[in-house]
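Q: what sequence does this backbone want?
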């Protein structure tokens, strides 16, 4: 049996997925272990929900293949008995996505972009030093960051181009491609089967996931319009804020937005507030303020951030100047866990760094908020975090971490980070000295930070290749000269 790792992160996932187990919320290690042992005991006595909670926790995080395999095999057996709706939902989710992470949409009905971030707190893991295996997967070679970065850029460039293959071209890989496509279609068919069964039994998230699968792959319809309408009617009867919001995003339906907001679902109220703000009518502007305040009061992090922005935009000397303490409190609420807003983290870091809004200068807190924002993918936070590591402000000085912070931000297009990398490569600070790589970032800066065509990297690679050839030729000539004199 998979044993659960007693950490707060995994238990938080269990509490979210299985409310019946949310009896212990303390981070105290002894309580967490007791919680873990209780689940194991209940599982051994035949409690399927406890077993499912343990398996999902074990399969979370890095997605251990053995844990994923055990979880999926057990789920398949339980689903075949046709009773456990949670098992049907998670098995369908696994078949559709290859993991047990719930499918989510960002605002506007789009799939969220994955955050690009090299975790500077776990560089040994990233570099493979803790396990002898580097990110490029070669255990026999020492990890070459520059080589990895080059391949990563090529991979990202190839993915963004999404080159279409000529349908008339024939090659041995075509049959393999069709075979893979057939397997994918079969998995999706089985996923929809189990998700439908769970949804028909009243499982809300299964209903929502069915709709999201349609949005993920428009070429493979998982249901027709009549079924979509039926699912939305079922969501209406459930009064599910999450489900109605997702349906509204996918269908651009004001009716569904309003129904979702009426349930008191914070994200729905915020989305409806954004729509109302686009109208200049006095009635819609009033609705905007009401909904924005309601969603903020319910703890919606982005709504809190926008209220802070609106308050800070009040002009000095006006009848009602900005309340700086209120701005600070709103930003603090927006940047608080869980799910902090990265823009709020950036501004809160600025406040503590500069000592504004009635706060004293506090470098460790500035470091803390910029670090949180950096992990959420904010390039400005990454740049500032790198600067703090470089100078040792609010943290121990670490040139290597400063380099990786700048590298993170540069990949996301920050020209300030690119200039930092020029300096660090040129001087060999935090990274081995390399005039060629310094020149690469100079070339990037000349192109406005855009290497979409791969030109800047190609220039550097050609230069490196010429230098290598020249160096090899010089070595050969030296060897011939030595042989001649002997």
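A:
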């Amino acid at each position: 049996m998979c044993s659960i790792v007693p950490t707060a992160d995994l238990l938080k996932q269990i509490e979210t997925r299985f409310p019946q187990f949310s009896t212990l919320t303390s981070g105290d290690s002894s309580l967490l272990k007791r919680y873990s042992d209780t689940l194991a005991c209940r599982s051994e006595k035949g409690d399927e929900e406890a077993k499912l909670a343990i398996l999902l926790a074990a399969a979370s995080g890095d997605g251990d293949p053995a844990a994923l395999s055990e979880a999926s095999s057990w789920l398949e057996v339980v689903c075949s008995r046709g009773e456990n709706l949670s098992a049907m939902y998670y098995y369908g989710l696994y078949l559709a996505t290859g993991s047990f992470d719930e499918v989510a949409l960002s605002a506007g009905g789009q799939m969220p972009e994955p955050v690009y971030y090299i975790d500077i707190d776990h560089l040994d893991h990233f570099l493979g030093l803790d396990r002898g295996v580097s990110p490029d997967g070669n255990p026999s070679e020492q990890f070459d960051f520059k080589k990895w970065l080059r391949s990563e850029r090529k991979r990202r460039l190839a993915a963004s181009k999404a080159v279409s293959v000529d349908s008339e071209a024939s090659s041995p890989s075509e049959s393999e491609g069709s075979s893979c496509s057939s397997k994918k279609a079969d998995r999706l068919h089985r996923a929809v089967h189990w998700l439908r069964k769970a949804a028909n039994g009243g499982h809300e998230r299964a209903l929502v996931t069915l709709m999201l699968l349609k949005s993920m792959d428009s070429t493979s319809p998982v249901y027709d319009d009549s079924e979509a309408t039926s699912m939305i009617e079922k969501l209406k009867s459930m009064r599910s804020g999450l489900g109605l919001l997702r349906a509204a995003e996918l269908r651009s339906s004001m009716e569904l937005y309003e129904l979702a907001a009426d349930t008191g679902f914070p994200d729905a109220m915020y989305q409806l507030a954004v729509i109302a703000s686009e109208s200049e009518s006095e009635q819609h502007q009033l609705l905007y303020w009401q909904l924005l305040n309601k969603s903020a009061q319910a703890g919606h992090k982005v709504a809190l951030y926008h209220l802070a922005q609106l308050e800070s935009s009040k002009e000095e000397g006006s009848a009602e100047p900005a309340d700086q303490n209120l701005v600070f409190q709103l930003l603090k609420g927006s940047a608080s866990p869980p799910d902090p807003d990265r823009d709020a983290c950036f501004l809160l870091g600025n406040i503590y760094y500069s000592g504004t809004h009635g706060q004293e200068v506090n470098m460790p807190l500035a470091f803390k908020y910029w670090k949180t924002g950096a992990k959420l993918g904010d390039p400005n936070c990454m740049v500032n975090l790198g600067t703090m590591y470089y100078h040792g402000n609010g943290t121990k000085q670490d040139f290597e971490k400063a380099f990786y912070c700048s590298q993170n931000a540069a990949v996301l297009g920050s020209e300030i980070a690119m200039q930092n990398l020029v300096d660090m490569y040129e001087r060999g600070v935090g990274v081995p000295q390399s005039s060629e790589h310094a020149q690469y970032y100079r070339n990037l800066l000349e192109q406005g930070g855009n290497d979409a065509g791969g030109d800047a990297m190609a220039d550097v690679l050609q230069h490196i290749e010429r230098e290598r050839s020249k160096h090899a030729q010089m070595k050969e000539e030296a060897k011939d000269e030595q042989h001649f004199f002997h």
